[in-house]
């Protein structure tokens, strides 16, 4: 939604999700990806090479800056834009490295209530036998278990180089919040930007390709919609375990009250018998948080 709103400004151009910065920056990591050519050998070879290059990794980062500045500029040449918006959710994995490559970039960090995000992921899963195929959550295990913490650490790294926006604040006061973002980026605000589905100029192929088209303006009705799922014993258990895994400090650091969320969950607690036939979050995600 926010991506479509921002790109309605004539000076901002974007595509659904580029993902282009992940590959070259992961080359500097010994783990975290796999490749047919053997990523561990590639990592060692790159380190040996950079040891022989003046300024080593700094030169590598400078090379990436030149390369991707050229690529982003080429994308802009197809539009009237002055800014290219690279919205790739899994950039939470590489925020410090992104900041090194583009120290003058404008970073917009969007946060949302963790259980609203969790509920959104569940809603994207296919239905099977009257319920969701919960094992599909394993596709999002890093997003759910590690993403929030990495995002908050990234905000610390970025400091004044980012603006943090809460989804709930934006849908409640879209004009006020969008003005702040426009001022930060350095573009002129127009209330017409909030009518983000005037045309299909930006087809969404990642994220939620359905709900983003259901509204023409920010809709505050989605803020606490996750609460409706607490009537399902299986979803209640997943939500309860998920908020415990994240921990009070992280939830509070994100700008939400862990106590209020826990109280909402506890008020809908199901009996032991109903919960006996539910799956644990660890079984659904197939990954224990370390």
Structure summary:
With 290 residues, the protein is mainly alpha-helical. It has a domain at 2-21 and 53-223: Rossmann fold (3-Layer(aba) Sandwich).
What does this structure look like?
The protein has 290 residues and is mainly alpha-helical. The chain has a domain at 2-21 and 53-223: P-loop containing nucleotide triphosphate hydrolases (Rossmann fold). It has 15 helices and six strands. The strands form three sheets. Strands 1-2 form a two-stranded parallel sheet. Strand 4 (127-128) and strand 5 form a beta hairpin. The protein starts with a helix and ends in a 5-residue tail after the last helix. The mean pLDDT is 92.
Q: Structural class, from helix and strand content? A: mainly alpha
CATH third-tier fold name of the domain at 2-21 and 53-223: Rossmann fold
Query: How many β-strand stretches?
Result: 6
Strand order in the sheet with the most strands? 1-2
**CATH class category label of the domain at 2-21 and 53-223:** Alpha Beta
CATH homologous superfamily placement of the domain at 2-21 and 53-223:
P-loop containing nucleotide triphosphate hydrolases
* Shape-level CATH architecture of the domain at 2-21 and 53-223: 3-Layer(aba) Sandwich
What series of H and E elements makes up the topology? HEHHHEHEHEEHHEHHHHHHH
Mean pLDDT: 92
The rough form would be described as globular
Separate helix tally: 15
Low-confidence stretches: none
Rg: 21 Å
**Amino-to-carboxy terminus distance:** 33 Å
The main sheet comes to:
2 strands, parallel
The proportion of strand residues reads 5-15%
Q: Which percent range fits the helix content?
A: 40-55%
